């Protein structure tokens, strides 16, 4: 498996990832719809996000990486935000977010995705990062804990009607 920058060479794999989400987890797949409408523009936007250029209101500079298996499938996506000086990110969004499509779950790709995000955070000079999870998502909490996450607190989110766990991880 390789950690790759978003690239137009992965359009087919990206479309398969989106199809997987729309078939099995449509709520979480909504954020990828823009990518299938105009893939080239989507990849350019992700690169601008990494540079912190022309950021849409409410977003911060963010490095996007795709984990690609030996068959060329995108098996996980990770986003590492360069800072979290936004109320949502500082509360429940955190520095790192990762997604694993339904068909790839159970293969420990979430651990590899979080590790890749931690590597980017370290390269950015972040000594510790905030990673949050739905407290009822035991797999996600285990992933964070396996990667060194130290639970700060669990609380009911003002953004979603769920309990959230906030973890800090040293890079």
Keyphrases for this structure?
single chain, 171 residues, alpha+beta
Structural class: alpha+beta
Radius of gyration: 15 Å
Distance between the termini: 21 Å
The largest β sheet comes out as: 4 strands, antiparallel
Number of helices: 7
DSSP, total strands: 7
Annotated CATH architecture: 3-Layer(aba) Sandwich
CATH domain topology? Aminopeptidase
Helix percentage range:
25-40%
Q: What amount of the residues lies in strands?
A: 25-35%
Total domains: 1
What number is the mean pLDDT?
Answer: 94
Which term fits the overall shape? globular
Low-confidence spans: pLDDT under 50, at least 5 residues? none
> What is the H/E string?
EHHHHEEHEHEHEE
For this structure, what is the CATH homologous superfamily? Gcn5-related N-acetyltransferase (GNAT)
What can you tell me about this protein's structure?
- This protein starts with a strand and ends with a strand.
- With 171 residues, it is of the alpha+beta class.
- Helix content is 39%, strand content 26%.
- The model has no long low-confidence stretch (mean pLDDT 94).
- It is globular.
- The relative contact order is 0.14.
- It has helices spanning 11-24, 26-29, 33-37, 39-51, 87-93, 109-123, 138-146; strands at 2-4, 62-68, 74-81, 96-99, 128-134, 150-156, 163-170.
- Strand 6 and strand 7 form a beta hairpin.
- The chain has one domain: 3-Layer(aba) Sandwich (Aminopeptidase), CATH 3.40.630.30.
- The chain has a 4-stranded antiparallel β-sheet, with helices on both faces. A 3-stranded antiparallel β-sheet has the order 5-7-6, sandwiched between helices.
- The protein has 7 helices and 7 strands, in the order E-H-H-H-H-E-E-H-E-H-E-H-E-E.
């Amino acid at each position: 498996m390789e950690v790759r920058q978003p690239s137009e060479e992965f359009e087919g794999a990206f479309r398969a990832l989106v199809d997987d989400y729309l078939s099995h987890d449509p709520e979480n797949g909504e954020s990828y719809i823009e990518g299938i409408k105009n893939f080239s523009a989507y990849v350019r936007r992700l690169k601008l996000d990494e540079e912190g250029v022309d950021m849409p209101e409410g977003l911060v500079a963010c490095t996007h990486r795709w984990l690609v298996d030996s068959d060329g499938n995108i098996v996980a996506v990770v986003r590492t935000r360069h800072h979290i000086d936004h109320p949502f990110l500082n509360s429940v969004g955190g520095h790192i977010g990762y997604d694993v499509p339904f068909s790839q779950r159970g293969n420990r790709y979430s651990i590899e995705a979080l590790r890749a995000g931690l590597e980017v955070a370290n390269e950015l000079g972040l000594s510790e990062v905030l990673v949050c999870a739905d407290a009822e998502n035991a797999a996600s909490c285990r992933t964070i804990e396996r990667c060194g996450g130290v639970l700060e607190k669990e609380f009911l989110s003002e953004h979603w009607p769920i309990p959230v766990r906030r973890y800090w991880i040293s890079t």
